[in-house]
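note to self — DONT lose this again. spent like an hour looking for the file last time. sequence + predicted structure for the chain T wanted, 389 res
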Amino acid sequence: MAAAESDRTTVLRGHVAEAAAELRARGLGLELDQDPTAIDRWLDLRAVELMRSCTIPLEYVDEPIVAGPYTYDMTSCLEHVVTIEELSYGDTGFMLACPGPLMSGVTVGALGDTSQRKGYYERVAGREPTWTFFGLTEPRKGSAATELEATLVPEGDGYRLSGTKRYVGNAAFAQLGVVFCRRAPGPLGIEAVLLDTDEPGFNAEPIPTVGLRGARISHITLDDVRVEPEQILGFKTLKSTRRGLVGAIRTLQRFRPVLTGTALGLARAVLDHVQEQRPGITGTDRLRLEELRDRVAAVRQRNYQVASAIDAGRVRADHIAGVKTRAAELAEGCTLLAADLLGPGSLVTDPWLNKAYRDARAFEFMEGTGHIQRLAVFQGVYKGTFLKD
C-alpha cells in the first residue's frame, strides 16, 4: 500500500495522525460519549481545525492546512478519505461532533452557483465555529431520494417547506444545512434547499442513541419554513434534471468512500487496542488477529482505489457499495474478535472497547443500509462490471 501512495498523501496522513493521537491520548472519545456537547471545550484542537476546513476550497480559507511542502483543502476524495480515516482512528465520535461542512459541503459544491458557494463556504470557514447538517433521511422513506415526502410549496415569490427528517447528524446543534424536499411529482421534482436553522418553523431535537453519540443524531420538524428561490441550490444555473436528485446521488457516492474510511479507522484502532492489551498474544489468537489486519488492509487499499477513481471522474456505484459494505462488516467483526480475545467481561471492564463495540454498529445503517449496498453490488455483478476496474 505504501508503494502506491504519493508523497503528498503520505505527508497528509502523518499530519492528521498526529492530531488523531492527541484524541486517543486525552481519552476525548469517552468524554464525548458521556456528553456530546463537550466538543465545545475542545475547539482549539488540531483535529477540530482539520474538520472545520475539510473540503472547503482554498480560496475561502484564510489559514489552509499546510503540512511539509503541501497545502490541502481535502476536496480530493482520496485526501478526504485519508483525513477522515486517520481522525476516526483517533475517535469516530469526536470527529463527527466537530464543526465543519461534512456532507452538506459536498452538496453545495456539486449544485450551488457561485453566490451560493461563496455564502456557504465563507460562513463555514469564518471565525465562529459553524456546525452543519445533511437532511435527506425521512421517517417513512429512509434515504430513498426519489420517494421524499417533505414538500416545497409555492407561496408568492417564494416557497414554504414542510415535513420531517430523521437520523440527521448534528441537526439539533447546527446553524446551517441542506434539506432535500419535493417541489413537484417525480424524480425531477426533488430540490436541495440551503437552510438556516434559526428560520421560523425549523425545529430539531437530538435522538438518544446507543453508539456514535458524538454524531448527535437528530430529528427535524419543518413547519411552513419560508424558502426564497435563491436558497434552492442551482436554481438559477442548473436545469431541474441536474439539481436536487443529482445532488443527493453525487453526495452519497462521493461520501461513501469517506464513510468507508471512518469504519476502517475504527477497525484499525480496535485491532491495535487488542495488541496493546495482549502484547504477548500468540498461537491461534494471534493468527485470528493478523487475519483481520490483512482483511482491513485489503479493503483499505481497495477504498483508496475507489476514491482515486472518483477524483479521476470514474464513479462506479457498485465498487463504492462493495467497499462500504465490507468495511462496515469488518468494523463490527473487529469488535467481536476483540471481545473474544480480551474476554467477554472486557465489554464491562474496558470502557474504550465498550464504546468502540457500540460505535461500530452504526456503519451498517449510515449512508445507505447494507442491503441497499448489496443490491448495487449485485447489479454490478449482473452487468459484468463489478470485477472490472
